[in-house]
Amino acid sequence: MIKNNGKKWWVPYLWLLPSIILISVFVVFPILIVFRLSFSEISKAGVVGGFAGFKNYIDAVHLPAFRTVMINTFWWVISVVGLSTLLGFIIAMVMNQKFRGRKIARSILIFPWATSLVIQASVWNYIIKYEYGSLNSVLLNLGIIKNAINWRSSYQIEFIWECAVGIFVTIPFVTFCVLSGLQSIDESLYESARVDGAGFWNRLFSITLPLVRPSLSVSTVLNIIYVFNSFPIIYTMTKGAPANKTDTMITYLYMLNFYDRKKGPANALSVIGFLILCLCSGIYMITVMRKEDEA
Amino acid sequence: MKGNAQSTAAGKRYFFLLIIGILLACLIMSLPLYTVTVGIFTKKSSNTFVGDEKYQEVLAEVEEVEKQYRDQGMEVEISEDVTVRTNSKGEETSLVAFTISQTMNKNVWSFLSSGMPSARVLYIMLFCMAAAVILAFAGCAGTMNTAVKELPGRCRRLRSLSCFFLLIDMLLVPVFILMNNYLFWRKTSLYQADLVTEGRDEWYGILDSFLFQGRMGEEAGNALKNLNVSHSPLLWVLLLCFGIALAGCAGLRFGALERPFLRFLLYLFVITICVITLYPYYVMLITAFRSNSEALDMYFLHLLPTKWVWKNLSDIIERGVPQFLANSLMIAGGATGLAMLCGIPAAFAMARMNFLGKKFFLGFVIMSQMFSPVVLLIGISQLMSTLGLNDNIWGLIFVNAAFNQAFAIWLLRGTFISISPEMEQAARIDGCSTIGSLIRILLPMAAPGIVTTLIFVFINAWNEYTISTVLITTASKKPITVGITQFSSFNMIEWQYLFAASLLATIPVVILFMFIEKHLTSGLTSGGVKG
User: Which of B267, B354, B530 is facing A99, going by the closest CB pair?
Assistant: First the structure.
């Protein structure tokens, strides 16, 4: 560390200043705006009136679709994060083996991460179309199915597809996080465990999992936040149709604010989402800080 | 030499495995996999009821014909089809149709000699199979008693090559089945429905030679009308057989490995994962070059477009895609520049200086990273209209830079800390200023980390969609991610344009991502942050 001998105390803050300004204006300010709006009366045209107390929140909770949307959001986050973590972990374990073409496989695996979510969602949207979708045509021509299957016959199934696409695009991130944890594990640990006669499961639970846990928890918490905030997949594939049955909170508040012009409840929902995220990030901060202290 | 003996025994085992796999594959190809039923003679008799005089008469006639066919040595069968209708006068009439149909079981070998287009794939498969066997024999000649580790390089190479050929075989099985089904099932049904006239005679000729050894001639066209093909799912078992052979081959080549079967499973798993991952990209690629009618065709099944429609590209260029790409480039480039400009000093201060509230600032940075702009969508759009940056590229640059700040600082700080400060201190003693030592010493040394951060921020900004949809309304200012949505309106989606534009948007980013792939794992460990 460079000592600040003879230097003014404010020099470090000067270095931080641009960054602080940038974050304050474009991250902190919107937060404050959303908070303020959620407690104000807002007309349909967006004219902000006086203080309204908790009226907007009460309105938001009483919206007809509120329950469905909350349940959807819950399932969306749980299923996407849970399954992608599980699958990503398995894939990372495989990718950590030494085999030929490992580099190529890893480069391929990174594709979904590098692609914009809108594009991914559009492609999957095309693949599972009933009339001309690629999946039907491949299966038909392979002789696996005899008649075209309607892959999106009901909104529940469409929601499951959305979750599947979500899982598909989230896996690479988990895989690479876990992989970075796996690569830092000393090979000799396994050697000595093998000498002691530990089997595969034994090694997995007593060596791999504890050592990968920090990167796994970081990736999980970050995924919760990113999946919660994910907008393009659902917006591109169903736009929340029919009647908000496939909406999650984010797409719902977008629709509420920019289409239905119910700005008050939309802001209230925004704050609710923000608070949920705060909870998650609190957990995340504790994890990271603890890791930082260990290091 | 215990190890040697073991390895020898294993070598023999794998050799047998290889042979068994190949033999099974040959066996399956000789089994009657195609069951074809063709109606070669039809006699319809109206006003006939089952069992009456007219019925008996016609039946006798048909049986006569059947006998003629049997005399020719064909396996034929009579089937009857009764249709009962009530006519306009309210009387019941009945139509009896007798069909003499010939059932033929054909194996893959006779398919091969027919000149069917998909037989070409089969030729390649056979060639690969033969090459694999020959190479395996050559690679094993006189070396069965040698441990794999001690094999001369020549033998290993031969066995590798053999393995490679078998792998091709394995991958070709689905291709073959696909083309086969496409040809038989689709083409036949199209011809039966009189939808296609072009190339009809050729198809008759091919079918004639496959089904009747060319005896039918002119009549093949009529026969085709009543053709009914089914093929056995046994074809898929070929895959398994080649798999067994491949496992054997892999065992011969990598005999030193502990459990080759597991290794085989590993490869299978990796290949499956890669195929699933690449599938959307493949769909995107082929659809981008298909014409609109082909893009909406369910039975389209070629591995590549039948006709590459390059016009799609010029069409999307006319519809403003270059402008979108330029906008994206500006937004992503500007955001990256801004994020680095603010991030590098902050990261430097965090890595090299001591000050009050350092931990607080770190927490502040991490916190800011938690909030993806989406949940604050309304707030941001409100802020932008206050600042007058609504519908302005600069607004997007600022937002993207701000929301990627955390990642940039975090990653750069990790890089800076990993570089020892001694060099800078030396430079400082030589009279260099803090800024000078940062630019001249630290930045060049931290180049890999900086490039990784740079690319990562760039990609995030390039792929950003939600904020852009909200902030940008003018078509000429849209970035590519928003721009492509103009090809999909409510009632019609022009898939080929959508995917052609998507392709242009994806390729550069994927290439960039591959560059930083190596650094990404280490970056994630030190940073533990997703951008």
Answer: B267
